[in-house]
Amino acid sequence: MFLSVLYVVLTVTYSHTSADTYWFLRIKSKFVDTEGVLDSWSPGANICSWNGLKCSANFTQVVSLNLSGSGLAGSISPEVSHIISLQTLDLSSNFLIGTIPPELGQLENLKELHLYSNFISGKIPAEIGLFEELASS
Description:
Leucine-rich repeat, LRR (right-handed beta-alpha superhelix), 4-stranded mixed sheet, Leucine-rich repeat-containing N-terminal plant-type domain-containing protein, signal, LRR_N_plant-typ, membrane, transmembrane
């Protein structure tokens, strides 16, 4: 009986995070990762075990992406906006270039956004100012 219940829980958990897996792999493709910090990001591994990701207590949603100080280069993918469960996005202290994608304004659950110590240029998109839950730091 216990194994049947465990199987159902694992199946439900996987189905909720499988769409996130697709989007995180797309996000990964925008980064230049010379230090291999994203090597754990592979379709065969449980997304909740990927470096820099934190899942909710019931493992059904990714709630945090923290790759601060990971030596990443490249740009911030607009596809981050598809991870609507994100509460924390920390890409600080890397070598990221380009602009802040306005699509980040779609992250309605975002409470923390850390992009400092990068080479990002341009204006902060107006959409970022619409976050009701975003804490200032």
